[in-house]
Specification:
The relative contact order is 0.10. The protein is mainly alpha-helical and 350 residues long. The N and C termini lie far apart (58 Å). 77% of the residues lie in helices and 0% in strands.
């Protein structure tokens, strides 16, 4: 049900937009078979992920070039396998010369294929098909603007995936230290190595969310709420990278003669809980004050003494994670770094 809830707006956009584009092309433009109008809507809506406006331009221009070249060549040389190969080759060559984008080139080629194989030569002219493509592109953007998915639900879902993964790695690493369990530490490291995909999905989702707030009047007055996700994006990515190094060093430390102390595991667990607090507060649309307070408490904690090499590295990485997450709550880098207990504090020496 949750997955359907996320894709339902796109289904509605495609369904309603296709019907409207078809009606406009037939009733207002007088085109008897406006094949490219609903197809343009489907491609427009389906190519979200933060670049829809640019891709709509590529779509409309690409269809226009493909249709124009296809119509011209088919009218000269007719249809058939050899003619199709020539039409596609020449259309895509023109596209490469005009624009190096893969989407643009592919759209030109596919449009030329449609013209050469499906659309009768004596049917509508190339100009009418270009108009159909433009109509579908405009209707697709309008459908996204007037029937939008919630930009905050999209951003919140994907950031939750990133912070959940971070929390899981920290929690497993903490348990591995407490139990001196190398298998558990290895599991934490394996989990950490799979987290980059979650970061990339969040970045793409954030671009989609920003785009929705840009083109949809329904969300113009809520852009400030999305700004918290924008603030968190880069610091959370950096924090997760540091967590990967932490997990690797946790595994290494358990094989040393001086394994990390339980106090270090407790600090990991506190950072893990702070990451979950950050997730909850951002999802609720609140300033992440509780997460910030939890992180400040970890930052002020004194370091354990008599540590092995890997444990020292773990502490360094954990300190970096704390700074990154403090920045995700809205603090600047200098202010966040200043909250850490100094490394040369005399209390840390024997």
């Amino acid at each position: 049900m949750g997955t359907f809830g996320l894709v339902a707006p796109s289904i509605a956009q495609c369904a309603v937009g296709s019907a409207i584009a078809w009606i406009i092309a037939i009733e207002l433009l007088g085109h008897p078979r406006p094949f490219f109008a609903p197809i343009s809507v489907l491609i427009c809506v389906g190519m979200g992920l933060g670049q829809r406006l640019r891709r709509v331009v590529d779509l409309v221009v690409g269809v226009s070039v493909g249709v124009g070249v296809g119509d011209l060549l088919v009218s000269w040389i007719g249809s058939g396998p050899l003619q199709l190969a020539l039409v596609v080759a020449l259309a895509m060559t023109v596209a490469v010369l005009l624009n190096s984008g893969a989407l643009f080139v592919a759209q030109v080629g596919s449009s030329a294929v449609l013209v050469a194989t499906l659309v009768p030569v004596d049917g509508a002219g190339g100009f009418d098909r270009m108009a159909d493509a433009l109509t579908g592109g405009v209707v697709g953007v309008a459908a996204v603007a007037l029937l939008p998915a919630s930009p905050f639900s999209i951003a919140a879902k994907h950031l939750s995936g990133v912070l959940d993964a971070m929390s899981t790695v920290l929690e497993r690493s903490a348990q591995a230290i407490e139990r001196h369990d190398m298998d558990l530490a290895a599991d934490a490291l394996e989990e950490a190595r799979t987290t980059q995909a979650a970061v990339e999905e969040f970045e793409a989702a954030l671009e989609t969310s920003k785009e929705i707030t840009l083109i949809s009047p329904l969300h113009w007055h809520r852009r400030s709420r999305l700004a918290r996700y924008e603030t968190a994006a880069v610091p959370v990515d950096l924090a997760l990278r540091n967590v990967r190094v932490l997990a690797r060093r946790t595994l290494a430390s358990l094989g040393e003669s001086s394994p990390p102390p339980a106090a270090l595991a407790e600090a990991m667990r506190e950072v893990s809980e702070a990451a979950l607090l950050l997730q909850l507060e951002l999802s609720a649309g609140r300033e992440p004050t509780l997460a910030r307070q939890a992180l400040l408490a970890v930052a002020a904690r004194e370091r354990p003494r008599d540590l092995g090499f890997s444990a020292h590295v773990i502490i360094a990485q954990l300190r970096s994670v704390v700074v990154d997450l403090l920045q995700a709550t809205g603090m600047d880098n200098k202010e966040a770094a200043a909250t850490l207990t100094p490394l040369d504090d005399p209390a840390h020496h024997d």
